Amino acid sequence: MSKPEKEIEKKYSHNRQQLAEFLKNLVIQIEAGEVTIGEERIQLPEDVMDVEYGFKIEKGKSEIEIEVKWKSK
Predict the structure, then answer these.
(1) Where in the chain are the domains?
(2) Quick one: CA dihedral 61, 56, 29, 68, positive or negative?
(3) Share of the chain above pLDDT 90, in %
C-alpha cells in the first residue's frame, strides 16, 4: 500500500453530549462545503461523494466508522 500524499488524523475523547456537539459542528461545516481538521481546511465538492459506514465489535470494543471519499480535482 502506498503512503498517502497527505494525512491528518485527530483523536479526541468525548462523552455522549460532547460527541453530539462535535458531530453537529461537523454537519454545519459539511453544509458550508469546508471542513477544518487541525489547521487544515478541506474543501468538499458539490459532486457526489461516496459514503461508507458501519458498526463492529472487536476484542470487547465497539466502533462506528464513517468514511467519505471523492475524487480530488
Answers:
(1) 16-69
(2) positive
(3) 81
